[in-house]
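Data deposition worksheet. Section B asks for the primary sequence of the deposited chain exactly as it was used as input, without tags or linkers unless they were present during the calculation. Section C holds the resulting structure in token form. Section D is free text for depositor observations; keep each observation to a single sentence. Incomplete worksheets are returned to the depositor.
Section A, Depositor: J.P.
Section B:
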Amino acid sequence: MNIQCYHYDLFMERVTSIKNGEYVETTIPRYIRVNSHFASEPFQFDKWEDRSTPENIKDIIHSHKVSRLHTNKVVELSPEAIKKYRS
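Section C:
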């Protein structure tokens, strides 16, 4: 399983062009993707169930190399955290 976190930063790009025989410098706003974190770890599971979607959706998922994943989440809290959560 891989995870990639990213955000976009605004970058002002300087562009020089020639207008009426003179150099003209302008700035153009551009958004640059900045990868801020990447992690990879084996994903362990005990069982699986195939709930295939219609063929056209499966083709889209396959061509983009993504998977749909639904997991059951279990959240365990300490006794102190349970008291704070309930209040």
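Section D:
The mean pLDDT is 83.
Residues 2-86 form one domain.
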